[in-house]
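A quick aside before the break. I want you to see a complete sequence-to-structure record at least once, exactly as it would be stored in a machine-readable document. Don't worry about memorizing anything.
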Amino acid sequence: MSRTLVTGVRRASLELADRSVQGLTRDAAKRLLDCVLAGLALIALSPLFLLIALLIRLDGPGPVLYRRRVLGRGGTGFDAFKFRTMVVNGDAVLAARPELRARLAAEHKLRYDPRVTRAGHLLRRLSLDELPQLFNVLRGEMSLVGPRMISPPELARYGDQAGELLAVRPGLTGLWQVSGRSALEPGSRVRLDLEYVRTRSFWLDLKLLLLTVTAVAGGRGAY
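That is the input. The structure line, written in tokens, reads:
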């Protein structure tokens, strides 16, 4: 990814940020909601975090957490945390299966991924693998609700829409999460993310958080 592309996207996203009094008030309320709910969730879920860490360590060698380099608000890079759900030699496994590599490039995710561990299948099915991103929320790198994260290699494919998507913090959940998640086509995901960016509000965030509980409980689009 070229430095020119990153600089251009960063400038465009900052220009699109809402700096009106109403926009700043909305952002302050959103940040307060993020900090309160993420903090309470981390306290309440701490025993579950320990259980998941033990499960991952018993399932095979490798670290408990996986760090994925992504772009935040304004195109600033940061490491998004996840519980590790793949084998440590996942790149080698994919390199040996060119047909899977081609499918991954086209669909961005594999329904039947040989790199995913036994514990990883369970964590993904229950939507528990992304819980460590609550720390990213507290650090101000993410929000509870927002568009999907964009990694540096993915940036070019978003074209002129990248600046608008990076005008806000990426979210742990969002419109895409409650509308089908991994079952959605890539074009539909982008459309839903743009719809959120353009219509975002404090009350929409509350609605999407409640709908996320229903979506996760039903396991729709999780794999």
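Two observations worth writing down. The first helix runs from residue 3 to 16. Residues 3-218 form one domain. We'll return to this after the break.
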